[in-house]
Amino acid sequence: MKVFDPNLPFYKGNLHAHTTRSDGDLTPEECIQGFKDHGYDFLAITDHRKPFGGYQDDQILVIPAAEYDVNYLSGGPERCFHITGIGLVHDFDQTLMTPQQIVDAIKKQGAFCTLCHPIWSMNTLEDLMTLDGYDAIEIFNTISEVYSGRGYSGQYIDLLASRGIYKLITAVDDCHRYVRDAFKGRIMVQAQDRTWDSIHEALKAKRFYATTGPSIYQIERDGDHVAVDLSPVDHVRFMTNSLYDGERFTYAPEGGTVTHAEYTMKGCDRFVRIEGWDKNGGICWSNLLVR
């Protein structure tokens, strides 16, 4: 089974950005132009509690979206929940809402719901296990990495998957300053066309990957055997719930690169996901392939 359809194009998009409508440094017009200039096909401006979008021209689709949050800053360890709704039809009252109520309100509109930067938010595994109904987790969040050193949340995805909870995987910028925190984390979506309906369908069908640089061309699965073709990288990681397996990494020969790698799931593997790391620090991430 091939994950990607050779006859469909990929569309480049960012699902998390802020403007002067909340706490970003660029106006919506400046933000949109910046993503146009960097070759993006779609964008979600997720200003805090202020849905924005529904715009499209011949270069870019701006999807109606917003970010909602609940902060626990006293009475125990500080942590928060930031949750984006992509494809929102209208706003809703967030007063005194719990994280679960936010997810439920987003999903009631049929929107795509993502838990943002859980490692930056200092979420616990229990937090993520008890929160129900969200679609995706940000495996990488650019601003959380470049300004806080906590941008990578892959461990949550693996811990959840090892317990039978499977979430889609996105990479985003969450850009505010547009200095170091923009035009890096993104998803590449294989869709019929550049409309939200087509992109949303592709997200639900897992016809996309997340990246900060490398490209995934194809993933093929035959039973327990998985193969990936991708742009030149330094090494490929096949991440599973197994504690150790010496066959999970494929390294480039000295002075060379890797463009193809394979792995056969072992007896205790419940899932596999793929990471490709290039020599410049860029990473691509597949979605989970569940056994």
Roughly how many Å is the radius of gyration? 18 Å
Structural class: alpha+beta
The residue ranges in which pLDDT falls below 50 over 5 or more consecutive positions are none
The run of helices and strands is: EHEEEEEHEHEHHEEHEEEEEEEEE
Shape: globular
Strand content: 25-35%
CATH second-level architecture of the largest domain:
Alpha-Beta Barrel
The largest pleated sheet is described as: 11 strands, mixed
CATH class group of the largest domain: Alpha Beta
- Span between termini: 13 Å
CATH superfamily placement of the largest domain: Metal-dependent hydrolases
List its traits:
eleven-stranded mixed beta sheet; alpha+beta; TIM Barrel; five-stranded mixed beta sheet; Immunoglobulin-like; globular; 6 helices; 291 residues; 2 domains
Description:
- This protein has 291 residues and is of the alpha+beta class.
- It folds into 2 domains: 203 residues, TIM Barrel (Alpha-Beta Barrel), CATH 3.20.20.140; 78 residues, Sandwich (Immunoglobulin-like).
- Helix content is 17%, strand content 33%.
- The strands form 3 sheets. Strands 1, 2, 3, 4, 10, 11, 14, 15, 17, 18 and 19 form an 11-stranded mixed sheet that branches. A 5-stranded mixed sheet has the order 5-6-7-8-9.
- Strand 12 and strand 13 form a beta hairpin.
- The longest helix is centred in the first third of the chain and has 10 residues.
- It is globular and about 50 Å long.
- The two termini are 13 Å apart.
- The model has no long low-confidence stretch (mean pLDDT 97).
